[in-house]
């Protein structure tokens, strides 16, 4: 039986939504389908990532790395070239935290504003 609820995407609040949106656009290759004064929307098939200016935070503010958070986005890649792309775009890969689960490698990475996300290499 199909679930009555499906996961559509995520909203990521940013100190500099344009810069962080460009990072995810270049990393994921998703289409930029909307850009407003305070947000942008990236889409791929039925999924979306909205990067929104954080309320009440200056664009130059920095939150530092947040390697543990209540929610972690997970992206799946068919090759490990994604790891070098993360670093080339200014992010970092926490290779020392890599683990294998169900036969695939999982690595945590950190974006330009310190948000943690996970990459699964299949």
Question: Could you outline the blueprint of secondary structure elements for this entry?
Answer:
Layout: E1 9-14, H1 17-28, E2 31-35, E3 39-44, E4 47-53, E5 73-77, H2 81-88, E6 92-101, E7 104-110, E8 116-121
Parallel strand pairs: 1-4, 5-8
Antiparallel strand pairs: 2-3, 3-4, 6-7, 7-8
Can you give me a brief rundown of this structure?
The protein is of the alpha/beta class and 122 residues long.
Could you give the order of the helices and strands? Answer: EHEEEEHEEE
How many extended strands? 8
The CATH class of the largest domain: Alpha Beta
- How many structural domains in the coordinates? 2
CATH superfamily membership of the largest domain: 2,3-Dihydroxybiphenyl 1,2-Dioxygenase, domain 1
CATH architecture of the largest domain: Roll
Question: Average pLDDT across residues?
Answer: 91
CATH topology of the largest domain, which one? Answer: 2,3-Dihydroxybiphenyl 1,2-Dioxygenase, domain 1
Query: From the helix content, strand content and strand pairing, which structural class follows?
Result: alpha/beta
Note the beta-strand portion. Answer: 35-45%
Backbone CA Rg: 15 Å
The N- to C-terminal Cα distance equals 27 Å
**Unreliable spans:** none
Helix coverage percent: 10-25%
Task: State the shape.
Answer: globular
Number of helical segments? 2
Order the strands across the largest sheet as they lie in space: 1-4-3-2
Largest sheet: 4 strands, mixed
